[in-house]
Design a protein that fits this description.
76% of the residues lie in helices and 0% in strands. The protein has 468 residues and is an all-alpha fold. It has 5 domains: 217 residues, Tetratricopeptide repeat domain (Serine Threonine Protein Phosphatase 5, Tetratricopeptide repeat); 56 residues, Serine Threonine Protein Phosphatase 5, Tetratricopeptide repeat (Alpha Horseshoe); 62 residues; 48 residues, no CATH class; 75 residues, Serine Threonine Protein Phosphatase 5, Tetratricopeptide repeat, CATH 1.25.40. α8 runs antiparallel to α9, α9 packs antiparallel against α10 and α17 runs antiparallel to α18. The longest helix is centred in the middle third of the chain and has 28 residues.
Length: 468
């Protein structure tokens, strides 16, 4: 636990350093940040100092860069990856979060890491401050607003809870979580003041509303956000009473996924894998992998949308490439590990082979495609990629053999057969066997004239014949 203290409680020598840093804020902001950071490292419980540091850090961000900085933070530091670290060593995580924020003050994931670590250390006001900072970048983020409301509740700030709850209700007027949080806060206000004061826009709605809402909820299908929030709350309560039941963890993860909160969906699968019965559950491991890939896909989609709105922005372009590289690195590391631990799972081998093929590692992908043929579900695709790998290595005779297998086995001219026949024609072209190549291209041309450049190849061939 770390006690939260005021600046006046710091060592006199530190206070003297702070005075000098305060005076230099306008002339030399980087110097001030350096001094603030150094003292904060020694006295991490000083919230007032943390606020001074954050003010200077955020001031350095231009208005146009705020949204971009938030995206950059997501690429390098997804919050669900921090959760376990914060649980194990919260003091180290607190310091690590500040280091990440110093590099990129718009890194909302690092601010979440700070909040999680601070909560573990009993620094309740620091938790509030961390979530308030995130909302500067994501003011309508319901998940963060709810976390802020709970943080205020835990810190004993009932009026702030009610204000935050009203902010949630402005975004989603039927939010059940907000109603529940504000009821608890209202009780605290009543105990402190003897009556309810202010924020009547919500309190007037409380009478008998719970019972009516419960009846209405049971009478309709749960398809909207309100229904999902209720299911999430109930499933969370089940986990508290049955912490060893993996079904509840899976269900909660599924609800968060449907809600659009992939970070929490991943976090709850990670929690399931920490349980004794979940440590050896391969399906949980695969679920986490797929959710994480979806998280990166969503992130890449955000970068692509940003780039479409500002195509000349080199920073956005660089961020997009970094996001793609991060996803690929994660996928590669996971598949390498899975193939090593489950050498007879040929689907994993096929996926790893495809990844290696994409980066041009043809020698490395060959054995994976050869073994992947043992699985009936990926056999034909494995043969296709095996032929492609041979072709890229210019082992055309071996490639022709693989493409002919597919050509003969697949009875209908579907996309996979078209790919195989096209690749077969290209091999014959490379081997300068033009007649054989054209015969293959004709097979595709007669079925799908728009497939790749077969029309151009056929037209060029006959034009050449006419000119002779």
């Amino acid at each position: 636990m770390i006690e939260e203290i005021k600046v006046s409680q710091l060592d006199p020598r530190q206070i003297k350093q702070l005075d000098a840093a305060d005076k230099a804020q306008n002339a030399d902001s980087s110097y001030s940040c350096e001094i603030y950071s150094a003292i904060l490292k020694q006295s991490p419980g000083c919230l007032e100092l943390r606020k001074r540091l954050r003010f200077q850090q955020l001031k350095s961000l231009s208005k146009s860069a705020k949204g971009l900085s938030s995206l950059i933070g997501k690429v390098t530091s997804a919050p669900f990856l921090f959760r376990a670290k914060a649980d194990k060593d919260p003091e180290k995580s607190l310091s690590g979060a500040e280091e990440l924020i110093a590099k990129n003050p718009g890194n909302t994931a690092a601010h979440q890491m700070l909040a999680i670590a601070a909560q573990s250390l009993g620094m309740l006001d620091t938790v509030v401050f961390a979530y308030e900072t995130i909302l500067k970048f994501q003011p309508k983020d319901l998940a963060i607003l709810k976390k802020l409301a709970f943080a205020h509740l835990e810190a004993g700030n009932p009026d702030a809870v009610i204000a935050t709850g009203n902010a949630i209700l402005k975004i989603n007027p039927s939010d059940g979580d907000a109603e529940d949080i504000m009821k608890k806060a209202s009780v605290a206000v009543a105990m402190n003041q003897g009556k309810w004061e202010g924020s009547t826009d919500f309190r007037d709605q409380l009478k008998d509303k719970d019972e009516a809402a419960s009846l209405e909820q049971s009478a309709k299908t749960v398809t909207d956000a309100k229904g999902l929030e209720e299911l999430i709350r109930k499933t969370y309560e089940l986990i508290q009473t049955e912490p060893g039941n993996l079904t509840n963890y899976r269900q909660l993860s599924d609800y968060y996924q449907r809600y659009g909160d992939l970070q929490n969906a991943i976090a709850w699968i990670q929690q399931a894998r920490k349980q004794e019965t979940g440590k050896g559950d391969v399906s949980l491991e695969e679920k986490e992998r797929q959710l994480t890939l979806s998280y990166y896909d969503d992130l890449i989609d955000q970068w692509e949308k940003a780039l479409s709105n500002d195509p000349q922005n080199s920073q956005i372009s660089s961020g997009l490439e970094k996001a793609k590289a991060t996803r690929k690195q994660y996928q590669h590391e996971q598949l390498e590990s899975l193939v090593k631990r489950y050498p007879n799972d040929y689907v994993y081998r096929f996926e790893l082979g495809c990844l290696l093929f994409e980066v041009g590692s043809f020698d490395q992908c060959l054995p994976h495609f050869q073994l992947a043929q043992r699985n009936a579900n990926v056999r034909l695709d494995a043969i296709l990629y095996l032929g492609r790998a041979y072709s890229r290595k210019r082992f055309f005779d071996l490639a022709v053999e693989q493409f002919n297998i597919l050509k003969n086995e697949i009875q209908i001219m579907d996309d996979r057969k078209k790919d195989a026949v096209y690749e077969l024609g290209c091999c014959f072209e490379a081997m300068e066997q033009t007649e054989k190549a054209i015969e293959e291209f004709k097979h595709i041309y007669s079925s799908d004239i728009s497939f790749r450049d077969v029309a151009d190849k056929i037209n060029a061939f006959y034009s050449n014949q006419d000119s002779k």
